[in-house]
Amino acid sequence: MSNLRDRHAKILATIGPASSSPEMLEKLFNAGADAFRLNFSHGDYEIHKNNIKNIRALEEKVGRPITILQDLQGPKIRLGEFAEGAKHELAVGDFFVIDDEKAQGDKNRCQLPHPEILDILEKGDKVYINDGIVRMQVVEKHGRKVTCEVFEGGTISSRKGVNLPGVDLPISALTQKDWDDLAFGLENDVDWVAVSFVQKEQDILDVKEKVNGKAAVLAKIEMPNAVKRIEAIIEASDAIMVARGDLGVECPIEDVPSIQKKIIRKCRKAGKPVIVATQMLESMIENASPTRAEVSDVANATFEGADALMLSAESAAGKYPEKAVQTMHNVISRVEKSSAWHDLIHAREIPTMPNTGDAITHAAAETAYALKANVIVTFTEYGSTALRMSRQRPRRPILAVTPHMKTARRINLAWGLNCLIKPNPTSQESLSDLAISAVKDAQLEDSKEPIVLTAGLPFGVAGTTNMIRVIHTTED
């Protein structure tokens, strides 16, 4: 019996007050969590540092790489303060002014403490407040005094979030807080950095320059401008997250499913991991069981071939964090055992890129299926070969063997990759021995079924995937 997961899609669980203890972290891992997200919109450095320490201790205990993702807050735009913390109801047809006056707000106006945004707003632009509950449109502007007419009413109050769908915001994707948080994350050896409110590829390139290879960089897609520039952002990023919360506010909510499918396909084509996030099992924050619609949502993302699915408040602050992870694991596992699963994730063929590495991994996937191989073993230095193998979405388990724990932690987020730490082979003769040893460590050995392995010559050189071999565990 294998000691690896019996599924390919990964689970990314957010850590928070409900799940930060060493005991609960272990329960979440055993329930199916492959990676943990630290949300830097909440918590101080002491809390995050303790979480990192506990995750690394768990990693050592279970003997398997565990991924840590740092999610930066980003430039969340918020209203100023209302007098005495009052809440105000705005009705359809009301007029409301946003300006740069520091006076506390009332039912008719409030400060928007972002003068650079007031400068670029124009007549016809939409302004959404409180997660899109209150929706207005700019009808008049005098300097930094912007008058809006309400076309969907609701409650507004101090510090509520503001969304400006379709507006190219003249602000960086990272605030000073984010840069400070990033420095902390790199100092504490996080594996991934997620950049919020990305608008263009330069936002990612700026972060990558600062990160300098110490972590992989993920772009969160939650703005229409990012959707328009998705191909350039995918190329600049190491992975993508479809962050459906703000995306569903910034875009018409009925467009979100097709945007999700489009991004997943483009990421698979580019060979970049893609995560689907937000409200996947939202009702499990309060309830022990999900809704049927939530189960279908998790199942559909799995059928689409997403690399990972994310739990937010369900695991961070909900009443049933362990059960939420277990439920997601059960749904993914059941989908991947269904007769429709493989046909659906390959319903649209992902064209192989014209290079040797992709040709080898494509051939390895086809060979493993034709020979009913027990497992595909991929030797990888810094992860590129393993990610190419993952991109093929083979039916057989993939063992990604690397000498670097840092590589293993990063690629652990990708579809189907089970990561093991082994030294690089020193010769072609040692290659089979190392592959068989890895298979035995993973408890996948079966003398009746062959192993398909891929590697690159010369050994230890990144990006040289050029070899495929079929071996048996009983070979001399």
Descriptive account of the structure:
The chain is an alpha/beta fold. It has three domains: 10-74 and 173-337, TIM Barrel; 83-163, Beta Barrel (M1 Pyruvate Kinase, Domain 3), CATH 2.40.33; 356-471, Pyruvate kinase, C-terminal domain (Pyruvate Kinase, Chain: A, domain 1), CATH 3.40.1380. It has helices at 22-31, 45-62, 115-120, 176-187, 201-211, 224-228, 230-236, 244-250, 256-270, 292-303, 313-316, 321-337, 341-345, 356-370, 384-391, 405-411, 428-441; strands at residues 10-15, 35-39, 67-71, 88-90, 95-99, 109-111, 126-129, 134-142, 145-152, 154-156, 162-163, 192-195, 216-221, 239-243, 274-277, 308-311, 375-379, 398-402, 417-421, 451-456, 465-471. The two termini are 24 Å apart.
What is the first-to-last residue Cα distance? 24 Å
Fraction of residues in helix: 25-40%
| Order of strands, widest sheet | 1-2-3-12-13-14-15-16
Number of domains: 3
How many β-strand runs? 21
The number of distinct helices, counting runs of at least 4 residues, comes to: 17
User: What structural class is derived from the secondary structure elements?
Assistant: alpha/beta
List the helices and strands and how they pair.
Layout: E1 10-15, H1 22-31, E2 35-39, H2 45-62, E3 67-71, E4 88-90, E5 95-99, E6 109-111, H3 115-120, E7 126-129, E8 134-142, E9 145-152, E10 154-156, E11 162-163, H4 176-187, E12 192-195, H5 201-211, E13 216-221, H6 224-228, H7 230-236, E14 239-243, H8 244-250, H9 256-270, E15 274-277, H10 292-303, E16 308-311, H11 313-316, H12 321-337, H13 341-345, H14 356-370, E17 375-379, H15 384-391, E18 398-402, H16 405-411, E19 417-421, H17 428-441, E20 451-456, E21 465-471
Parallel strand pairs: 1-2, 1-16, 2-3, 3-12, 5-6, 12-13, 13-14, 14-15, 15-16, 17-18, 17-20, 18-19
Antiparallel strand pairs: 4-10, 5-9, 7-8, 7-11, 8-9, 20-21
Helix pairs in contact: 1-12, 5-7, 7-9, 10-12
